[in-house]
Amino acid sequence: MSNLERDPHEIVCTADGEAETELLTGRAVPLGGPRAMSVTRTLPHIRRRMIGAWCFVDSYGPEPATMRVPPHPHTGLQTVSWLVEGEVLHRDSVGSLQAVRPGQLNLMTAGRGISHSEESAEGGTLHGVQLWVALPERHRGVEPAFEHHAELPVLEGPGYRAAVLMGGPSPATAYTPLIGMQVSVDGRAELPVSPGFEHGLLLLDGEVTQLPAGPLLYLPPGRGRIVLEGRGRVLLIGGEPFAEEIVMWWNFLGRTHDEIAAFRKEWMEGPGFGTVTGFDGDPLPAPELPGTRLRPWGRVRPYQAPR
Predict the structure, then answer these.
(1) Distance between CA atoms of 36 and 69, rounded to whole angstroms?
(2) Across all residues in the chain, what is the average pLDDT?
(3) Which of 58, 72, 162, 227 could tie 39 with a disulfide, CB 3.0–4.6 Å?
(4) How far is CA 189 from CA 4, 82, 183, 230, in A?
(5) What are 106-117's pLDDT values in tens digits?
(6) Is the separation of the CB atoms in 71 and 276 below 8 Å?
(7) 226, burial (CB in 10 Å: exposed 0-12, middle 13-18, buried 19+)
(8) InterPro entries given for it (predicted)?
(9) What is the pTM (predicted TM-score) of this model?
(10) Low-confidence stretches of the chain (pLDDT beneath 50)
(11) SS3 call for 269
(12) Which domains does the chain have, with CATH numbers?
């Protein structure tokens, strides 16, 4: 999925401190023009830019909607497509053509550069999440690739059943220590987690006592279990705090202003991101860069007392 904001802000992330448990309230972002599908973006947040290597969380539905995201580029990240309801068709510049359905995983590794499109049937019900994972410096120049996993491993315990998207026993390629799961809760569940990971929890449907509908709940490192009570489905993401600085602007992840500017120029003028075939429409033009140089932001934005 693309970031279709016409005036995207740059985001640079550093491991510069931790916070207590906090609710990250999302903001509505339209994917396209006046009749665009709307998503709720809870990450990056004004306070917290990442959870482990997870750097972007868009959720949508359930509602009748049409996803139509024209060909657009990515660098330095992986896109993770997960549906609770509906179907989305993925095309990319390495030749992939793959629908993703509930319980299946589409994972695209942009590496040094890739382009892709996403679309769904007109007016069908859509409910799901789109996530990005930042690639560390040593891997961010890997060759672009695509994976589809129709079946995923399942972990079970008292009160829960969890499909593992990434990390742990998942076959999906990961470049940093992380975890991503859809957890079905039925009663009281105690999920074992890594104390070295920070985590985020997003309620997908149902009612779970600890999670209000909408915000992403951030949990700092240091716990060996997460307790949930109720009946519903929850997205759980986590990972080791990401220790590198990352500039994120539009659909690019880089390290400097000049690198981001070069990515944009290549998308607008050059062939470096390949061609998406089969999409009925033009590629998505990149927004204009801001008038000032993209500057560093902390991984956790420092608190500033109101004046």
Answers:
(1) 10
(2) 90
(3) 58
(4) 38, 23, 10, 9
(5) 999 999 999 999
(6) yes
(7) buried
(8) Pirin, Pirin_C_dom, Pirin_N_dom, RmlC-like_jellyroll, RmlC_Cupin_sf
(9) 0.91
(10) 9-19, 298, 303-307
(11) helix
(12) 11-239 (2.60.120.10)
Burial 263-294 (b: 16+ CB within 10 A, else e): bbebbeeeebbbebeebeeebbebbebeeeeb
Q: Is the dihedral of CA 301, 114, 53, 39 positive or negative?
A: positive
* Residue type (1 letter), 48: R
**Max CA distance (Å), the chain:** 55
d(CA 238, CA 196): 10
Q: What tokens appear for 173 in the block? A: 């390629």
116: Cα separation from own chain's centroid: 15
Q: Whose structure tokens read 């008038």?
A: 291
Question: How many whole angstroms separate alpha carbon 272 and alpha carbon 268?
Answer: 10
Q: Residue 256: is it exposed, middle or buried by C-beta count within 10 angstroms (0-12/13-18/19+)? A: middle
Q: Answer for the pair 298, 276: CB distance below 8 angstroms, yes or no.
A: no
Tokens of 40: 């709720």
Instruction: Count the residues in the chain.
Output: 307
